[in-house]
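Homework help board

Subject: predicted structure for assignment chain

Our instructor gave us this sequence and asked us to write out the predicted structure in token form, then describe one feature. I got the tokens but I'm not sure how to describe them. Can anyone check?
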Amino acid sequence: MATPAEGLARLRAAADAGELDALCRRHRIRVLTVFGSAAREEPAARDLDIGVLLERGTEIDYLALIGDSHTEAWSAALY
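My token output:
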């Protein structure tokens, strides 16, 4: 399991590589954001808080999103 700092670094790398954009398009996520202590790069962060804003009328399928994220190179950031 990755630490919050490792997860944040992997998410940033995935964003730079365009992988997060692709995942968001597939799941109709308009905004994906990281917040909380890990986002502030606090050394004592114990988790990685992620929020999403969906396109209007979209119902998120969490199981599909989790399954899809396993196919991405950045999946270790979440697990």
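Reply (TA_rk): Your tokens look well-formed. For the description, you could write something like this. The helical segments are 4-16, 19-26, 62-69. That's the kind of observation they're looking for.
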